[in-house]
Amino acid sequence: MTIAALSRASTMIRVRDLQKTYYVHEKAPGLWGSIRSLVARKRIAKQAVQGVNLDVEEGEILGLVGPNGAGKTTLVKMLAGIIHPSGGDAQVLGHTPWERHNDFRRQIALIMGQKAQLWWDLPAADGFLLLKEIYRVPDERYAKNLAYLAEVLDVTKHLNVQVRRLSLGERMKMELIAALLHEPRVVFLDEPTIGLDLTAQRAIRDFLLAYREEHRPAMILTSHYMEDIERLCKRIVIIDGGEFIYDGPLERVAKTYATQKVITAHLRANVGTPIDLTAFERFGELLPAEENEVKLRVARDAVAEAAAALLAGLPVADLSIDEEDIGTIIERIFRERRVESS
Amino acid sequence: MIRYARLYLYFLRFSFSRAMEFRVDFFFRIFMDSLFYAVSLAFFWVIYKHSPFMGGWNFDQALVFAAGVFLNDALHMTLFSNNLWWFPVFVNKGDLDYYLVRPVSSLFFLSLRDFAANSFINLLIAVTILVWALTRYPEPLGVERVTLYCGLLLLGVFLGYVLNFLFLVPVFWMHNASGLRETYFGLGQLSGRPDGIFTGWVRRLLTSLLPFALIISFPTRALFDAEVGSVVLQMLAVTGGLFGVLLLLWRFGLRAYASASS
């Protein structure tokens, strides 16, 4: 086998020029608008996904980042075979997802943080038995996988409790077990930590990393929590208005888009008299800071000058210069795009 | 087939477990349905006090027909009605998603996953009424005819399910199927009338394109009429044809399924 063939063999998701257009009708407000729309409707095409290309390899967790309505969930649902695209092509494990071959569906899993798949009034263990039958998981493998997943996620003692009596975090863990019992080779995670407390979020992130190490599935993760993305994904796609505006390593986002840095000056204790900071505003934006701290966001090319001014003008004990955090950078990218398009 | 039978056993188990979680609702539903049968039987008796024949059937034949109506209703309520009731809601809220990623027929899953366990006792009551109506029939009916009748009655239940679903599938495109659902319920009432009361084009329509008259009347005809071959053939052809249409519409419907944004 050639290197090229080997490389192709590890590509589990391949997307080319994939598009999805929804049609909605516009209605003017009020009763008259309703009457008019009853007779004649203005149909509007909304391009949810606009000709995107993507490859995801075995063992890779790809982070899909974008604001609400950016097209993240639409893309995931097309790749999971739930909705048909308007154009383009996608291959997941060599299958066209929306043809929904059983061989394809047996090898994928979908987890949606906002939708439950388990039977609400029954213990999760009952739901798992149904999934065992659906995915034809042999008895021995089922017992082994269930024991492993329940132990790692620390929910063994809750398996026989009705799903509706579980906490949100416990329910999400059960949903993860339900999705992974059949050892899928491709996993789609649509906001799996939404609404969870910090401990549960962390537990799920740790679990996903451990699961990736052990099983090497290709995963696509969408999340509004940047911590999910930063902890789990080495590569991200930034999507907005159905278009990919960045596809590459997470660490390169800062290098590519960060135009500013944050200088934090830690002042010596007992400075005494109040300090006038207005002189530093000419370098950039003063940010809210702790007591005895000054935070200044400045353009990258003004960092040296601003740092020197802070050192000269203030009783500085320590000084740090940081990149903006990734969430702030991405937020700014979206904000600037909104301004440009308006 | 065996796999689907095993899956259905799980649905049964889960549905019974869930129904028995809510005890008051469980017993109340049984009480309400029993009341429905009692009122329907009393109404039937009153009608036959004033008319010796209806749609060509005498009192004893019509009693079997009425028992068939009860059993058909009980089977439909127990097997399909909960599932079909929720189907348009699932389409509009995007709740089909998980059904579509499972490696089993989504139509099977969505049609049968929720067995109305609290209607199960009523199913037994309906069976009892039918057995009573058949055994009190003054002439011998013969095992073969009764077996054929039971088979066609089940086929009628399946035809009723297909018709019900056909009236709901447009929700993929229309997004609101309440008008069609009400139309189905209205037309569905016609299956509880002997087909003999319909004549002309109405009869042709109700035994072909909108075959509500086939659902219970035709199985009953197979029990009492001399000629049964055409009855069986017509039921099989119409049911098979409409099921084919349903499968086709299901395929197209899923292509139009937009899910819902999260």
Q: What value does the Rg of chain A take, in angstroms?
A: 25 Å
Mean pLDDT of chain A: 88
Q: Strand tally of chain B, please?
A: 0
Helix content of chain A: 25-40%
Beta-strand content estimate of chain A: 25-35%
Q: Tell me the distance between the termini of chain A.
A: 52 Å
Uncertain segments of chain A are 1-8
- Would you identify the CATH H-level superfamily of the largest domain in chain A? P-loop containing nucleotide triphosphate hydrolases
Folded structure, characterized:
The complex is a heterodimer of chains A (342) and B (262). Chain A contains twelve helices and 13 strands. Helix content of chain A is 37%, strand content 29%. In chain A, strands 5-6-7-3-8-9 form a six-stranded mixed β-sheet, with helices on both faces. Chain A has a four-stranded antiparallel β-sheet with strand order 11-12-10-13, covered by helices on one side. In chain A, helix 6 runs antiparallel to helix 7 (168-180). Chain B is mainly alpha-helical and 262 residues long. Chain B is 76% helix and 0% strand. Chain B is built from 13 helices and no strands. The two termini of chain B are 35 Å apart. At the A-B interface, helix 3, helix 4, strand 5 and helix 5 of A face helix 1 and helix 4 of B.
Quick overview of this protein structure:
The complex is a heterodimer of chains A (342) and B (262). Chain A is α/β, with parallel strands linked by helices and 342 residues long.
Helix and strand topology:
The complex is a heterodimer of chains A (342) and B (262).
Chain A (H helix, E strand, L loop, with lengths): L2 H8 E16 L3 H10 L2 E16 L3 E5 L6 H8 L7 E6 L9 H4 L2 E5 L11 H11 L4 H14 L15 H13 L5 E5 L7 H18 L2 E5 L3 H7 L2 E6 L2 E7 H8 L2 E8 L16 E4 L5 E7 L3 H11 L2 E8 L2 H16 L1
Parallel strand pairs in A: 3-7, 3-8, 5-6, 6-7
Antiparallel strand pairs in A: 1-2, 1-4, 8-9, 10-12, 10-13, 11-12
Helix pairs in contact in A: 6-7, 10-12
Chain B lengths: L1 H20 L1 H28 L8 H35 L3 H4 L5 H7 L7 H16 L7 H26 L2 H4 L3 H11 L11 H7 L5 H4 L1 H8 L4 H28 L6
Helix pairs in contact in B: 2-3, 2-6, 3-6, 3-7, 7-9, 7-12, 7-13, 12-13
